[in-house]
Amino acid sequence: MNREEQVWFISGCSTGFGKALAIAVLERGYKAVMTARKMSDLDAVLAQYPGQAKGLILDLENHAQIVSAASDAIAAFGRIDVLVNNAGIGYFSSAEEADMQIVRMMFEVNFFGLTELTSLILPQMRKQKSGHIMNVSSIGGLVGFPAVSFYNATKFAVAGYSEALAKETAHLNIKVTVVCPSGFRTDWAGRSAFETPVQIEDYAPSAGANAEAIRSRSGKQPGDPVAAAQAMIKAYEATKPPLYLMLGAGALNGARKKLEDYAVDFDAWADTSLGADVPLSA
Question: Which domains does the chain have, with CATH numbers?
Answer without folding.
Answer: 3-270 (3.40.50.720)
